Structures are given as C-alpha cells and as structure tokens.
Amino acid sequence: MSGRPEEGLYDNEEIQAPTVPQGDRQRRARSEFEGDTDHSSATRRRLEEARRPQWTMGSTVKEILLEGSTNRANMKLNDFLRSKLGDEWVVERNGNVIMEAFVQEPDAYVQDQRLLRIIFNLTEYQEMERELDEMKILLEAITKLHHEGVDSLEQWRDYEGKDTVTPVARRNLNRVLTQVLREERREAEERARWDQQQIIFNLFAKIEDLLFGGRVRVNDIKLNDFLTLRFGGKGIAATNRDVSLEDFFKDPTRYIRDAGVLGEIQTTGAYARMEKTVREEMGLEEVVRRLSEKGVNNLLRWSKAAEEVKAGVCENAKNSLDAALQEARNRMTTIEAMKLEGYYESVYNASWHHVKEVPGAEGTGMEVKKGKPEQSWTYNEVGDTLEKDDGVQQSGAAPLRLMVLTSDNGWPYSWKRGLNERIHDCYVNCEVERVWQIVKKDLSEFLSPDDEPGFVPGRRVLIGTPGIGKSMNVGSYLLYQLLHCDVEELPMVAYIIGNRKFLFDKTAQTVEKYGAASNIEDILDGLSDRGVKGYIIYDVALKGYQPPAGLPCEGWGMIVVTSPNKNNYESWAKQIGAEQIIIDCPDESDVKAMCSWMKRNGHLAEEEAKEEADYWKKVKERIDKVGPILRYVFDQRKYKSRFDSCVSKVNSMNLSDTKYYSILGTNEVCDDSHISHKVVKVVRLRGGNNLELPLNTLISSYLGNLVTCKLAELMAPNDFILLVLAIKDDLLSKALEKYSVFTFLSEGFVNAIIPKLKGAETARRCSTTRLCVESAST
C-alpha cells in the first residue's frame, strides 16, 4: 500500500514491466529523472524492447523477472522533488529518505497535503508506485519458484504449476520462453537451408539428405516445446521433457492424461498441421530405412535398384529421387575439369629470397637476399611433432627471420581473383617451416619401403588464429614442397580450398581445377583404386565445408587447415584419429622482415610507401592494437575496420557475454558462434604425452586491457581475479595494480596466489626477507 488517500487495493493486474538490460540500468535511471519526459511510457518501452538481452534456456528466473528493474526508487525525496517540481518544493525534514520508503508511507514524511496531492498526480510517481508494487509481486514469485526447484528458464519450461504463478510473472517468463524457442527454431531452419545448399547432386548423394534436405526435422522438437509454442503450455508435464512428437502422436493419451485439455488441443488447426507433418516425416524415415536394408543409400545405388525395390517406395519420395538422379546425370555431362595452363610450372619453379636480421643496421635492421638461405632453422623432436631449436646458429651469422617464395601466377589461394589481385609472395617463417617438417616426417614414415602393410599415413589438423596466413602461407608452402617430393613415391597432390578443388599431377606436370559441383572423393577414390598415392591439403576456408568423412582415401595422407572452430574439423578428426598441430602467430621480427621485403619490392600502397622504418613503426602500432594478424596490419583500411569492430564488440559486452571469456587460459576449442574470437588468439601448449594443445590468450595488450577492464566491471570480483590468473600473462600485474584493494580481500584469489609465492634470497647486508610473486607465466 502506498498510503494515497484515493487509492484502493492493488488487484494484481498484469502490467508491462519496463525492460532495460541490466548493464544499462544506471544510465537509464539517470535519464528518466533528469528531465527525460519527451517520450511516453509506451514509446520508451518500444525502445527498450529493441535492446532486450539475448536469453537462453540457462537464463535464470531472477534475471528474467528483474530485467526491467531500475534504481530510481533509491532516489532521495528531495532529489525527486527538485528534478520534477523545482528547488522551491524541497522539504526541510525527511528530504534524504529514499523514494521506496516514501511510497510505502508518504504521510509519515510529508505532512503538507497540497504537496502530497501534487506528488501523487505526477506521472513519474505513479509509475514508481506501479513498479514497486510489481517488484514486490515478482520477488514473491521468484521466491515461490525457487522453493519449488524452478530457477532457470529450462526448469520453467517443464514446470507443471504455471497456473499457480502470479499473472505478471507467468506472462514475462512465458514471453521469454517463447522468444527462446522461436529463436532456436529460426536457427534450425537456417541450418536446414544451409544444408540444402550444400547438397551436391552427384551419384554419391545420400538418400536421406535428398529426401530431408532443406527442411527442419520436426521430430527433433520436444512435446513440451510444441505445447509451449502453440498452446501456451497447456498439457505440459515434467515427465514429458524428452518426449518426441513422433511418440506423442502415436499415443497422445499416454502423455496428456487430462481428456479435456487433450480434446481442446486436438480440435485446433495447429495440432492437425503438426500431426500431418510428423506423419509425413515418419513416412520418409521409413523409406530411408527400407532402402538402407536393401543396400540403397545413395543415388548411384538407387539408379541400379531393382524395380520391386523402387515399387515399395511412396510416389512422392520416388519422384524426388528420380528427379535428383536426372539432375546428377545432367551435371555429369557438363562438369569437366579445367586445365590451368602454366600454373603448375609457376608454383613448381617459384623463386626464393630470404630476410636476415642484422643487428645495428639502419632502418628495420633487416637484409633481403636472393636465393635459399645457407642455413635454415633446426628442429628437435618433442612428442610426435617438432619444436625449433633456438640454440643452433652459426657463430657470427645473421639470424634468419623469413623466407619468401614468389610464384609468377600467384598461389592457388588467390587464383579465384583477377590477375591484379593475386598474391605472388608466400611468407615462410619458422612456424610455417615447422609444419612442413612435421608433414615431411610423416611422409618419410609413410613412403618408407619398410612400412608395414596397412600402415596409415599421417593425418593432421593444423589449428591457428584466423588471419595469420595459414591458408596463404602454410597451404602454399606445403604445396610447393609436396610437388618437389619424389614423383614416383608421391605422384599426386590434391589442394582443396573451401569449394575449390585443384589436382596437381606431378607425372604430367599439370594442374586441373574442379568446380563446386564435382565430387573430389569420387575422383581421389578412383586414383586410390588404381594404387596411386598422394597427399591432400584441405583448407576449411568457407563455413560449412568440413572435410568429408570419406577423406583421405586409402594410400593418401592429409592435413586439414582450419581456424579454432570445432565445427570445421572435430567430427572428421575424431573419426580418423587426426593429431593436432598448433601454429603460433608470427612474432614482431617476422612481421618486420615482411615489411622490409614489401618495401624492397614495391608492394606497399602509395600512402604507405615512405621510409622503411616509418612503415614498420606504423605496422608495429597496429600490431599493438589488434594483434599480429597479417590480414589487417598491412592495410590501413582493413586495420581501421578491424579495430573499430573489436572495440565495439568489447564495449557492447554485457553480463551474459562474460561466460564466453571463460575460455581464456584454457584449451577449450569453441564453435563459430563464440563472440570472443576477435580478441582471442591461440598459442601452442604442450599437454600430456607432449601433445600439442591450443591455449587461448588475449590477442594484444591494448585489447587485453580493454577486455579485462570491461570484465572487471561486469563480473564478480572473485570470478574476475581467478580468470585473470588463468590468462597467465602480463595482465596479472595490471589486475593487481588496478584492483589490489579487493584482490587481497578475496579468499579465492589469496588461495590461488599462495602457491606462486616464494622467498627471495636475503641480501648479505639486508636484515629483512622479501617476498616476490612468481611470474604467472612460469
């Protein structure tokens, strides 16, 4: 009760609560009390609706119901009067009471009845009353649901007592639940459309893909979700959370025991349409099952199937498969490989240069020389791969920083571009060379005359930060070296970049390009069946182009080049037992050497082509901001776009986004929906049995500071400090410097830091013992 003379009892009417994302509460509260009266409540709610946070099934009931809370009820009475009525209306006594207390009992704080009437008639005051009344109801609902074990949206979905919850809370929770379910449905439809686009009509297209391509499998929808989306949750039972629609339509009375509720649902058009769709899908699944039992699982086998087998297929499915077969045959008559004249020779005869670091020299301190270096880098075996041996270097020799291979016609990665846009230079630093040495080691074992029958050639997954040159530099360099392997032992090299396929025939010294519709598996299987050996470079350059399960074929080695996106390679790697190679980002000296090479060969844009040292200084500043990402640091326009995008991503971070940054300091590999990928790089780490693992770290000091400050603002202190400890780099000292007050009041932090403390040796003339903190990177 507010105590207003003219007010009656609040009757729990359903009021639309304002919805302001939690991170914006203070800013919104200030604007509403500092003369922001130009917008009506309805207009403001529409604006706030557009800024509503992204909910998930893991969102808590408390977060959802308190989404629209503001702190304006904590405003002091005199501040409220001053902002709404002017200084002349402030009160001498009780002016510091907060508005929440005043609303509950206004007569206790203001005796002037005229002033009270004026206050009561203020729209802002009436809104505050409603908010406080609603807040009380919502808090009671949160408490009630908590006691009944309903703390998350997922638990609310299966909660059978929805009708016992106050209307405003029930409506808000159902609104968010419907929003999440519809978003999941929308994403499923997008994936289905994408899957349909990827179906290539060839003789090896799967029957199941052809019959179901482009449609969402409604049988994947759970009964409770269907009842929520179509019937507001009627008939929901916690025991039905995993019940499929197929099971439900087989026996509806088993899952909805209330005959009245079931009868009401079954009379609707939504029920009839869904039942029809589910039964159609069940029919198609039966077609797939029966054909599979007869050994018919692709178009080729459908074309050869006996008539009695085809006769057992329903007319619609039969027509669909016959149409797909005709399409595949039409394409077979038009798809031919395109021979690229002169391109094999261009790659095979690429010219060499190298860049050495000359201490004390002018400019960048780098010297460009023609030809191969006299001495390249040396590597030692570590586990099943290699690491560079930094201790090996000729006495007095200038250290090698970079090798450059130049192809007149460019490299396959850029062959899709025009002549003026092709990339001619392949940069080889010690990390790129390391990858080749590992592949070379695999090949020596594979091609050895002593290898045992059934020996499986090396299968590798190369994982690295997006934009560092994996596709262009690693792919091109591996191709060059593979072409120079013994032609009798390794006569073929297949290079696949997204939907582009190149086949290099070393015997004929030709390269053929195949279109997106061609099936590279069929082509390579044909070579393998004839006993031809080869190697496959598979670059997942486009989303959705994961390596096919049929590769590599027998007698072929293979490496997959990918960003740290598990959707690109995980299922393939698990199936064939591929081992990881983690490539580090190029270091500053590598990039400086590239700058020297580009300056020497006139590869810089006109606005960049000044003194070599000045250009390197500019590139160095870009690296400090966005990290050593070659895709962006050499071009001002691309750099600016990347920088603005990263800063915007960090500044727009909200509380729910912080969970994505829990990967920092871990080996977790994420999918392509992960929002932190622009500010995270992967670094090679050795795990058990010296296997290579990707360690997630912040990509640059600038973005690192930006991210940690934002995380500190949003996260609980303990969680933030422990996250910074996991990062294991110089951000530890920055966190201690900025947040030292609450840092050492945090039990979790102290417990984590104690093992890192050790006593320093006491100086000869010093009577005190000092403590030092070990570097977090040790």
From TrEMBL:
Residues 72-134, 217-281 form the DUF7578 domain. Residues 24-52 have a biased composition (Basic and acidic residues). It comes from the Eukaryota. This is Putative retrotransposon hot spot (RHS) protein. It holds the Pfam family RHSP. Residues 1-53 are annotated as: Disordered. It comes from Trypanosoma cruzi. InterPro entries: Crinkler_effector (IPR052980), DUF7578 (IPR056000), RHS_C (IPR046836), RHS_N (IPR046835), Trypano_RHS (IPR006518). Residues 461-759 form the Retrotransposon hot spot protein,C-terminal domain. NCBIfam families: Trypano_RHS (TIGR01631). Residues 344-450 form the Retrotransposon hot spot protein N-terminal domain.
